[in-house]
Amino acid sequence: MRRRDVFESAALAAAASLGSSAAPAKTGKGKPVLMKCGTQHAHDDDTLTTLAALGVHNICSGLPSRRLDEAFSVEGLTKLREHVEKYGIKLDMIPLPLSSSPVARAEYPAIMMGKSPDRDKAIDDICTIIRNCAKAGIPAAKYNMSILGVVRTEPTKGRGGAMYSTFKYAEGKQEPALTEAGPVDPDAYWERMTYFLERVVPVAAENKVRIACHPNDPGMPDGKKWRGVVPVLGRVEGLKRFVTIKENPYHGLNFCQGTVCEGLQNPNKEIHDVIRWFGTRKKIFNVHFRNIQGKIGDFRETFPDDGDVNMIEAIRTYREVGYDGMIMPDHVPKINGDTGGKRAFAFAFGYIQALIQMMKMEA
Fold it and tell me: Looking at the predicted structure, is the pLDDT value of residue 15 above 70?
């Protein structure tokens, strides 16, 4: 797909979206536009070359390793940063080895299993990686506090026959009945996360490395569990509580707009006040700019211009709160023949670039 085609398609899509309904939002006009298009792709030569050509100059790298090893040493992280910078791209963030995988496949399962002393050793490793980030000149790291991983049901067909990742709670098969972590009620979930934050946030603050946690994907309807687990970071109330534990400017969110919307009853109306709550408190360290159709317990992930949320109004709200980080694509629909989602991501990059350009024109 030619770059010109990508941007023309994105601009037309953005213009068409102007007519969709949204909750009234302050425009933020007159405020500087500080956000930039970013991504969390791999950091191989071909990918970096493509990103530079598309004007994506800020990234979160791929996962350097699944454990504390040479890749996460000061030398290894410095080499990674310098490799990215050769392409005129800034390494704004790296992922910690605390991914969205289910606990059975997690890099450090003991943390969310709540098993000491193994979790203490795992937390020590995470703290060492954070210190090494500071020494290597990397300002932020993202992570997950996941037990279930990303929960979905069967995909459904969307625009042009593309397959949309879908979750319908009522149709889901919770098999086996429990995860390897066993039953995890909210109190147990909060204990494990608090144990982690009490030890890690002070290290992040001391080393001036921002740590950004992704919400649990997805949140469950009120009173519902999934395989014996209540994923408390899948709802806005849980995220608010989370950022107040060990309150610190270096403790915030990898704010996945798509996942947050998955926990709302009326995403198009409600998302703006959610962005304002976290944005005005400077708790949004990164944005996954993803759209959905539906609501909590019954949704599917769409192209950015094909969901229920007016993304133009959403990006205006990020400008309103002074957000200055990356706006990046996250999950993209699967187009037949689109190996690795490259075409879908190209469309998403163009869409985001067009919206940021529009914000600059308005400003």
Answer: no
